[in-house]
Amino acid sequence: MQEKSINVLFGLRVRQLRNSKGYSQEVLGYETGLHRTYIGHIERAEKNITLKNIEKIAKSLDVDIKDLFDFSNLR
Question: What pTM was estimated for this model as a whole?
Answer without folding.
Answer: 0.92
